[in-house]
Design a protein that fits this description.
By secondary structure, this protein is α/β, with parallel strands linked by helices. The chain is built from eleven helices and nine strands.
Length: 282
């Protein structure tokens, strides 16, 4: 596995591979790698000649200084993890100046209103930060295919929109949520939960599954009421929001139409760890 520590070494690598006609699959990350990331690499391996990943904790997408400070970082552990996985050909670990040569600031984007819903409303500026770093990474890595987890379903929709509006020659793939044994969606932030909090967090997926069972049986306001009641009985788990939204527009809805697809989205805070999850409703 090649370790590319700056933009120049990445660009030389990419040029060599492109000259040989290799198709590059790319999965960007912020490190603290776990089995969920492996599922991205596995998908990339199937459809490309090479798999490239990146590790960069992107400051412009954090809207809370404490969250940025506490974000788990252990580069050597991540490199060992990638090496042992056997899925990866190269990892790009840029410095801030490789991605932000002038100023560590976001560009301003419009993603057809997708950026205003849910996480966009809860974390203003977050998707400008994601868009800025992903656009720059795409321009540097020049992947044919790029892979993102469905845990961040709104991010995935926004990255599809970004690639389409900028006409970037990359195909975006969503990869299903990888869950721990108790159903908790795998996330780098899970590292910050105590064993008891981790066990209690199974309530999130259990509740999403209940909501799926109630969908099209009772009204959406009634589902929301039941979900609030479940979390009000669990004092360590603070429900930040639960919404049912159209899968394409991401607009929250209180009614459903037969021919549209819907998804439940949830954010729960456990201590100061913000856990996010979602489930397609059928
Ligand atoms: O999902 C993530 O880990 C990040 O938002 C991403 C896409 C790597 C951009 O920093």
């Amino acid at each position: 596995m090649e370790i590319l520590k700056n933009k120049k070494s990445l660009e030389d690598y990419v040029e060599r591979q492109k000259e040989m006609g290799k198709r590059i699959g790319f999965a960007p990350t912020m490190g603290a790698l776990h089995k969920g990331h492996l599922s991205l690499y596995e998908a990339a391996r199937k459809e490309n000649d090479l798999v490239v990943s990146s590790i960069f904790v992107n400051p412009t997408q954090f809207t809370n200084a404490l969250d940025l400070e506490k974000y788990p970082r252990n580069i050597q552990k991540d490199i060992d993890f990638l090496q042992n996985s056997g899925w990866i050909d190269a990892v790009y670990i840029p410095e801030v100046a490789d991605l932000y040569p002038e100023k560590t600031a976001s560009k301003s984007y419009q993603f057809n209103g997708l950026e205003k819903e849910m996480e966009g409303a809860a974390r203003p500026g977050h998707f400008d930060g994601v868009g800025t770093v992903v656009e720059t990474l795409f321009r540097q890595v020049k992947p044919d295919n790029a892979y993102f987890g469905e845990k961040d379903f709104q991010q995935l929709a926004i990255i599809r929109n970004l690639a389409a509006q900028l006409k970037l020659p990359v195909k975006i793939h969503g990869v299903g949520i990888y869950r721990e044994e108790n159903g908790l969606a795998m996330s780098s932030r899970n590292e910050r939960l105590s064993p008891a909090e981790r066990a209690a967090s199974k309530l999130i997926y259990e509740t999403l599954q209940k909501a799926n069972g109630w969908f099209r049986v009772v009204s959406i306001p009634e589902i929301k009421k039941r979900v609030s009641e479940i979390f009000s009985e669990e004092p360590v788990m603070i429900l930040e929001y639960f919404k049912i939204a159209d899968e394409e527009t991401l607009k929250e809805t209180d009614f459903f139409y037969k021919d549209r697809n819907y998804r439940a989205f949830i954010v729960v805070n456990v201590n100061d760890v913000r856990l996010i999850d979602n489930l397609h409703l059928d």
